[in-house]
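Data card: per-record layout.
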Amino acid sequence: MRITISKENYLKAVAEAESEGETVIAATLVRWLGVSAPAVTMAIRRLKRDGLIKVAAKGEIGLTRSGRAIADRLINRHHLIERMLTEIFGMEWYKVHDEAEQLEHAVSADFEKRLQEKLGVEVVCPHGNRVGLDRPRDRRERGWVPLDEATGTVQVASVFERDRQLLEYLDGLGIRPGARLKMLARNYDETVSLQVDRKPVQLGGAAASKVWVSSIA
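The structure for this 217-residue chain is written out next.
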């Protein structure tokens, strides 16, 4: 069985959507990958034939053991490349996801091992995200909440990394992993009022929901 870049991308998308707490169906992959519905239908057929995914009667898509192994390997390489780009080459945190999307397919097992030896394991990526399955309920169990639900003074723990425009926008406001914010108000128009570096900031609710924060005692 030949594992193509396209197959890797589909398997990784299933794993990442699961990590965001989504029920994965064909429409999820259309939105997640920005491809057409017919293309997704054909890809699902091929992946199911190859034993990499399973499809329930209602259309819910899950990874088989083989599919999960491929997705996990790709996600780990993506994570290591993001860390390499920031920790070794000093690239801005909001740029590294797009670079890693391109480079992750070209990393050999030997280079992956060397990166892991150089950078270590069990460290979050530049966006504050853990490698592997880390669902919203897992984050809540650690005491994290989305920024639009926060109260008081909080610290940014992680940011949804698959939207370059959002990342650049947040960086411009000073909202990045490790930053301290003070929640001032949740407003009628679904925006939130924050204090960032002693400056008032307004942030839309949709953007705030993509930022996970932890309380500061």
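Known properties of this structure: The chain has three domains: 5-67, 73-119, 138-215. Residues 138-215 form a domain with the SH3 type barrels. fold (CATH 2.30.30.90).

See the next section for split statistics.
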